[in-house]
Amino acid sequence: MKGQIIFLMLLNLAFGYGVKAQKTNNTKTTTNNTKTTTTECNTGLHLNKCVESLKPSGYKFLKSYKLEGKASKPLEYEYTLSKGITYFISMVNSDPSTKLRVSLYDNEGKMIASSYNTDIKKYFPSIEMRVQRTGIYKLKFSHESPKDFCAASVLGFKR
Amino acid sequence: MKKIIVSALAITLLCGCPAPKENTNSNAESNNTEKKPDPEKKDFKVNFDVLNSMPDPIEMVDLIKSIGVEYDNTILNKAANTEKYNAEYKMALNVGVYSVDLGYANLHNKTQDAINFLDATKKMTEGLKVSQYFDFEAIKKITQEKRDLNELLLVTGQGLEKMRQGLEDEKRSETVTLVVIGGWLESIYIASQVAEKADKQELKEKIADQKAVITSLIKMVEPNKSSSKHLEELYTDLKKIEEAYQNITVTPVDGKPSEVKMTKEDFSKLNQAIKDVRNKVVS
Lengths: 159, 283
Hints:
The complex is a heterodimer. Chain A has 2 domains: 1-39; 43-158, Jelly Rolls. In chain A, 30% of the residues lie in helices and 38% in strands. Chain A has helices spanning 2-38, 43-52, and strands at 60-69, 75-81, 86-93, 101-105, 111-114, 116-117, 122-123, 126-130, 135-142, 149-158. By secondary structure, chain B is mainly α. Chain B has one domain (46-282). Chain B has helices at 2-16, 20-33, 48-52, 57-66, 88-107, 111-127, 136-144, 149-169, 173-197, 201-209, 211-221, 229-244, 264-282, and strands at residues 249-253, 256-261. Chain B has a two-stranded antiparallel ribbon with strand order 1-2.
C-alpha cells in the first residue's frame, strides 16, 4: 500500500519535472537563436559608408546592394545604364583580406570595367566609368576568399 | 486505496499539463505571426532580377533638368488627385507617378510643390501599407530647410528602394511592378512633354532609348494580364506605346551621338500614346 503510494507520487514528480524541463529547453533554444542572430553580417553599416562615398564627387544615388551569403559563386545584378552618363560603383567590405572586387560586363558579356587592376595587381574600392552605349549591364561582385560575403555597394550617377 | 490512487493520478495530470496561459500565448503568438493568405493577393509572376534592372526614373528627370527647360508643374499629376485612388493598383501606379513628380520638383528646387508631392506619396504608401519604409518627416525637413539636393535625393531614393525591397520580401509582386511602371510612365511623359517644346537631341535620344524598356515592361505584365481587368487594360495600353515605337530606332555610334531615326510624325504618335496611357493612370 505504502509502496504503491510512494510509486504514484514518484511517478507524479517525474512526469511534472519532465514537462518543466522541456519548457526550459525550449526557452534555452530561443535564447541561443537570439544570440546567433546578433553575430550576423551588418551590411546596413557598410551601406551607410558606401552612401557617404557618393557625396564628395557629387554622384546621385541610384541603387544599393547588400552583399551577403556564401562565397561559392559571385553575386550578380543587372541594371540598365545610359549612354553619356558617368556611373560610380563603390564598395565597403567588412574584411579587406577577402579582396572584394566588382566587374562590369556589357550585354555581350564583355568586361568593360573592374575594380581590380591586373597590371599593378591592386584592388580598388570603387570604379567610375562613362557608359558609351545604353543597355543592360551586369555588375559582378566576387572575392578570392572562401569566407562568406559581408559587404555593401552603391551605384551612383552624374552627367 | 482507490481514493489515494485517483488523487495521485489527478495530481499527476495537473502537474504534467503545461500551464494553460503559457501554452495559449505561444499558440496565440504563433497564430499572430502566421500570415493569413491575403484574399487580394494574386499569383502575379514576375522576375525580380529583370524588374530591378529597369532604369531609375531619376535619370530621366535629371536629364530634363540638365537641358535647362523651365520647370512646368502643370504637366505633373495634381496632389489632390489622391482622393480618387482607392483601389490598390491605382495607389501603386501613382506612388510611382508622385515619386517622379517629387524628384522633378526637388531638382528644380520647388519646395512647396515637393512637399505637396511628398504628402501625396505618403498618402499612397499609407494606403498600400508601406509607409514605414520612408522617413517622411526627415525628408520634409530636408526639403523645407533647402539642404543639399543630393542629400534629399538620397533619402528619397533610399526610401523608395526600401519600399520596393519590402514589397518584394512580402511577395507583393503586382504592387511593386505597378510602382515601377507608374514611375517609368511619368518620367517618359514629362520627357515627351518637354521634348515637344524644346528640340533637344539628347532628350529625343533618351526617349527613343526607352523602346527596350517598354518591351521589358510588357513582358512582365503579359503573363498576368488575364488575372484582372485592370491588368488586361494596362497590358493593352502599354502595347499601344510599344506600337508607337515601331518606326523609331536608335543606332549607337561609339564616341558620337547615336543615330536616332524618329520623324516628327513618329514622335507625335508616340507622344500621344504616352499621354493617353499616362492620363488614364492618373485619372
